[in-house]
Automatic annotation (TrEMBL):
Gene Ontology MF terms: ADP binding
Native organism: Rhynchospora breviuscula
Protein name: NB-ARC domain-containing protein
Classification via InterPro entries: LRR_dom_sf, LRR_R13L1-DRL21, NB-ARC, P-loop_NTPase, WH-like_DNA-bd_sf, WHD_DRP
ATP-binding keyword on record: no
Origin organism lineage: Eukaryota, Viridiplantae, Streptophyta, Embryophyta, Tracheophyta
Amino acid sequence: MVETMTTSAVSWGLSAAGWLLSPILTKFVNKCYDALGIDPPPHLLCRKQALLDKLENLQTFLLPQLLILTEAVQQSPHRPLLKQLLQKLRYAFYEAEHVLGLIEYNRLEKEVSSIFPSISKSKCSFKKLKSKLKCESTKKDLIKSLENLEKTVNEAMKIVGLLNQPNSSVHNSTDRPNELIKETISNPGTEVIGREEDRKYIVELLQENIPESSSNAKCYSVIAIWGMGGSGKTTLAQYVCEYVKEANYFDLVIWTHVSKKFSVRAIWERIWESAFKESCPNFSSPEGLQSKLEEKLRGQKFLLVLDDAWCDERISVQEVEKLFAPLSASKRGSKVLVTTRMEETAKILGAMNPIPLRELDEVQFLSLLMCNALGDEKIGDMEEKLTSIGKKIAAKLCRSPLAAKTVARQLHRRLDPDFWSSMLNRSGLLNDTMGALYLSYQYLPPALQRCFAFCSLFPKGHYFDHDHLVNLWIAEGFTEADENINKHPKQIANWYILELISSSFFQVDKLNSNSYYMHDLMHELAEHVSEGECFRIESGDEKKIPTETRHIFVVLDMLEEYMDKICNLNYLCTIIVRTSLSNFCLKKVELDALFMKCRKLHVVDIQCYVVERVPKSVMHLRNLRYLNLVTKLLDETHISLNKLYRLCVIYTGRQISNVGSLISLHNLKEFRIGAASGFELKQLEHLMNLFGSLSIYGLHNVKNAEEAYRTNLAGKKDLHTLLFSWDYESKYVLREIDVEILEGLSPPPQIKKLAIKGYSGKRFPSWILENNDNIKYLKHLELADCVGMEALARINELYDLQYLSISFLPRLNSWEPLPMKVTQLELSHCLSLAFVCDRDLEVITSIRSSIISQIVTFMENSLRKNVHGSIDFQFECVLEMMKLGNHIDEETLSTISKDLKKCLEKRLDLIFQLTNKYSELFLSPALNKLSIRSCFITDRILAQSLQGLTSLTQLTLVDIITITCISKEVLRSLNNLMVLDVTGCMLLTLIEGWDTHKTLEELTIECCPSLILETSAAAKSRSILKKVILGACMPSDDMLQGLASLEGLWIWDCPTIENLGIYHLKSLIDLVVRHCPNLVSLRGISGLKNLKFLDVVGCKNFKCYSDADKVPQLNQLYISRLSLLEELISLNGFSYLVSLNLYEGQQSKEECEVLHHLSSIEEIIFSQCKLRSLPPLQCLRSLKSVTIDRCVNLISLPDLPPSVQTIFIRYCNEEFTKSCKDTSHQNWHKISHIPEKNIRP
């Protein structure tokens, strides 16, 4: 455990400034002097060297004192001077940084003028002179800033002298970092709570044996637990040790505390003392100690615990091997268990899959606090009262086990409700825990300290988007001090994020790997170390903004109130604005005031709904590097920001004219070529810092190939994703100019993803056909709407290709084997390719007439027309094929345009007439996802092509009008298939083996009107299906029999279903049945104990939940008639309903009375209802959210309970929508108390 440090012993503002006295400042000073010119005056060179010498002295003396002797500095009489000094040094640094930015701006301005001569030619002599004078003035400002910095450093040297005096408390302190850390032992000491499952899992790993056959393997393996400081890693390791000692799994259990200073010899000595319970002899050399330790461990099966290990990439592989060398002669099956705050440390020490320590849940955490606070004391009647207060205290401790134990020790002193209440109301409960976390912060590199501290600007619980955070750090200049000068700033920032995750400062969102959050404790640490620089204004705050604030976060609906104060912040360089209002508009005058007064801004991130207009005053922000403003004016189709030369990141929602002058730009995600000046393709020529992805639209506006060559895409080495897009009105015309343009758009050699859309050339460019070294690392290729392409020449030579999408290549008439690494293939709308065999065509010919008649009958009786079964869809398919063959028959088109039967027959005729027919579809054996849409492939060819695809997990077949059967042999050969989607296959009559497949978990069958689905007797014991979607097909009433693993069932537009038997679906959670006109009942619903979501809508003959004596514990219910709800309420077990959706309903007043029984409802949704007024809702005391969606007849709102926090009104009639915004209307008064209102027309 780390010995905690109280707030009284820590001056956060003092110690957190350590990054400033790091090499960051030295590099910065060098950069400043470089900016003054190649040959600065001699006196400046002398001053430069003197300043650098002083900075080195500060780094070697003052910085270590700050980081190690924080407590002693706090107690020093010179502490106030030192604190004041560091603040002055910080702002001298910031001022010089700002001026240096202006010099960089002037340099970029000159560069842009040389690139675009029209700009420099337009300048008169007076303006040129003015520009020159401005540059000289800025350099003088920089000299003044450096003089101020030097003056502050001189003051610092005096403080160093005072601290270094013999009687100084700092000088006399002998503590080192490792001595501030308390040694840990293998015994947990107290009861361990909430870690039983974790201990069980780790013990299982410890018991895994290394096979004797693996002769080259080490005799031991490494397991690691990692997590932030104070999270319980050491306690868990102690718990594990205690268990394995009692079970005698190992001959020796060795506990060693590693600490921050990684010393191989020191660790060996601790291993000796722990293993043999004696002091380690004083060996004359490390080799002697290693040899003797190896001898004593020989033949022993041990568990070695390395607790609280710290090491980073500076620790070499050789040092790690040396550390573990004495273990090499031990018994096979030995283990090393590491606990560490950093995932990277675990990997360096050899752990293959480090285990992140999970957080205790609320109940476990409260038990931990109360167990440590009460101990064995008998408190009788006070227990209930103390537990109640304990719950509130626990809520403040951010689930930190260290905080719980620390606070519990204080609570244990007096088991008295009054004392506990005073502890609850005391500020700083987490201060002791902060000391433990602060050691982790100190261990971060200086640049990462700045990045981490900056994150305190956002509220607790904020989820950081990866790209957003990276762009902010770059804009703030945090990546500029990094030594990796050859790397793009985004690569450096990406590495920073990985380091912060590895060190437990960030946690990865489980639902989105590109999203991160900070534990509440880490957020508090960030707030401490950024104190005075970051300020946040949230709802209900009445705090005074510190004058030295540099970064500010504000909720938009409070911005007007604080705008004057914000504009007076002289050091402000970041403003981030968020809003909870959906239709808020920020006025131009407010932005003007901000931009005119706060000219040091680096970041303007106003992510509200819209701003009125981007004001011209934004041009005054010469150090602006990040701009996020979305303008609402529809007539403002583009904006000009061509003077913001330092701008790296921009989001405006509008096109930017003359973007080529923004030569620092990183994030131009898309560029649209236009006919107007300022939107030419050549604008991309000098944007050499572009990173990541670039989409180029409007290539049809390019007049000649020279423009394409001038873009110099091949030289933009940090681009890895490109999209080229043409958009011609006439799709089928071939254009040779497109070939020349694409030739000039040769991508950089490191390109990973490439998409070409709308291209009308007949062939690939030479950088694919002749020299595909340019794209040899390509992993992802999309070809779409390339109407002239006839062959995929040399595509099989893209050896690293993993994803291939070919969509609407109507002239593609040949097929080659795919590269061996392709794992995902999407093949769509290739109208000149047919993978068929004559026997299959004969089968289709024999059955087409009867099946097409059956299809037409089915679709005519369908309530909801599926797109693939519609006349319009089939007619479009016929029309596309006729256009391709240049034989459009207007008379035929007129005849079939409103006749589904004739459309289907004509489409089949055109397929039969194709001349390019192939008997085999060559696929990559590595495929795991295959999608074929609107292509022509018959039964035998499909079966033959799928043979051997043992890696295939997902198969999608959409609008394949030429398949009639998917045999059980086909599905059986796909022995890893998990998802099968068959949609719009109009002639398909049979799918065999779907219900007995050993790995199939999801099945979708939609708009296959010829398909009759039944289950076999074997399904009961073999099916593992979890999700089934059935739409516009003909399942039998009992087709679900035996699908005991099914968790989700969606059925729509299936007229053959009358009494749906669901009693076998014991695992069912979600049940949706819509627009099944003949459905009468659901049989067996009472047995579905896991059912949470029920949706029965548009089933006009549905009457009852047959044989239901008890409804499951539903959370969500979708229905169209409240009378069905009344039937459900009459049954038992309905008190868990949280969400109710009334869909397409038209309820009587009597039916609405049933809502009074829904005491648990938290959300109610009225969707497409025909009501003029909604039913009374005041009785729903738990209601929090109301949604009114597409209720076009609605006139008035009901009275709502005070519990409602959110109301959404969207797509209703215009008069009703306006009344809900009109402060004089009664509808407004009924919702005015609701905090969050989202009203859309």
